[in-house]
Amino acid sequence: MDKCAIVTGSSSGLGLEITKSLLFSGYTVFGGSRSGTKIEHDNFYDVELDITSEESVAEFFETIREYADEIDLVVNNAGVCEMAPLGEMTTESFEKQFATNTLGPFLLFKYLEPMLVKGETHIVSVLSTAAQYGYPNVSAYNASKFGQLGMIESLKKEWKEQKVRFTNLFPGAIDTPLWDKMGSKFSRDKMLSASDFMSVFNFVVHAPPTIQFPELTFLHREGYLE
Ligand SMILES: NC(=O)c1ccc[n+]([C@@H]2O[C@H](COP(=O)([O-])OP(=O)(O)OC[C@H]3O[C@@H](n4cnc5c(N)ncnc54)[C@H](OP(=O)(O)O)[C@@H]3O)[C@@H](O)[C@H]2O)c1
């Protein structure tokens, strides 16, 4: 089989663009989402995934194992963001963002472990500048992404023996459907485009495997959106 990749959140936005690009580069891709990914390609497997549910993550990996034993590239991308001042943020919204952005990657990594290839597997996490920098009105999102980063930093040490290559991407705001759901006032002109993001993603994924990018922050030239 060709090189195998997993992309979480392949149905929309960055995950959809990443999946198309990896297929174009010759990867076999297992894409996970709840709503399904509208891509027809011989090397694409559209697999149901609710990253907040351990049962669903276990089934996702069971399906992948029918076709592949080892995974070369994992794009840890699925995520949600909801905006509200802290006093108006509901506990339900806070829990949903933690379940998706923090518990989700934990379950992903837990079930991925048996499929790691020593010295080969590359894990690219689409974090956010919100994993490094506090923005107003996204306290739960900020906390969930900082939490995800903490877990990855611990895992880097835990998986040292397997020589896993970790790339943490910290992009600023990007014009994707994520913003449609938030109804925010921000101008899309001050956001990166999905194609800006893809130029960085492709640079990282196709760079020689001897290079690692522990932290890559990139944002629109006008700066942080707030
Ligand atoms: N857009 C930005 O400004 C920006 C900036 C920095 C970082 N990011 C990060 O980039 C990543 C992708 O965001 P995007 O902008 O492409 O947003 P998007 O268009 O809303 O896509 C989000 C993806 O995550 C998936 N997802 C959400 N909840 C899920 C769940 N419970 N189980 C499985 N999949 C789930 C969605 O699939 P289903 O709904 O079909 O399940 C969808 O495919 C996120 O981690 C986000 O935090 C975005």
Write up what this structure looks like:
The chain is an alpha/beta fold and 226 residues long. It has one domain (4-218): NAD(P)-binding Rossmann-like Domain (Rossmann fold, 3-Layer(aba) Sandwich). The protein has helices spanning 13-24, 54-65, 91-112, 139-158, 178-182, 194-205, and strands spanning 4-8, 28-33, 44-48, 73-76, 122-126, 165-171, 216-218. It has a 7-stranded parallel sheet with strand order 3-2-1-4-5-6-7, with helices on both faces. α1 (13-24) links the parallel β1 (4-8) and β2 (28-33). α1 crosses α6 (194-205), α2 (54-65) runs parallel beside α3 and α3 packs parallel to α4 (139-158). It is globular, with a radius of gyration of 17 Å. The termini are far apart. 39% of the residues are buried. The model has no long low-confidence stretch (mean pLDDT 96). It binds NADP nicotinamide-adenine-dinucleotide phosphate. NADP nicotinamide-adenine-dinucleotide phosphate binds next to α1 and β2.
Give the arrangement of secondary structure elements.
Blueprint (H helix, E strand, L loop, with lengths): L3 E5 L4 H12 L3 E6 L10 E5 L5 H12 L7 E4 L14 H22 L9 E5 L12 H20 L6 E7 L6 H5 L11 H12 L10 E3 L8
Parallel strand pairs: 1-2, 1-4, 2-3, 4-5, 5-6, 6-7
The structure holds NADP nicotinamide-adenine-dinucleotide phosphate.
